[in-house]
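Encode chain A's predicted structure.
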Amino acid sequence: MTVYWRKGCPYCASLRRGLRRAGLPTVDVDIWSEPTAAAFVRGHAGGNETVPTVDVAGTVLVNPSARTVVALAEGAGITTGPSSGGWFRRRTG
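Encoded structure for chain A:
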């Protein structure tokens, strides 16, 4: 599961905290550091760089709640783990 975010976005921070609490494995990509990530988000958000945008097993959600992402992940067979924060990975340019 990939979470597209940017620095200073309170919605991104909230979603990322919620997903960490749920223990979901994520790869977090800063769209301001990776032009291809920004292009991916624009392609799914009507040309805008709306974040957070999440790709869960090929299903892309724009500005979802953590509850929605957790439900979709569970439906896709992505299991939650301990909420120790050990699942969190950040990818930057």
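The radius of gyration is 12 Å.
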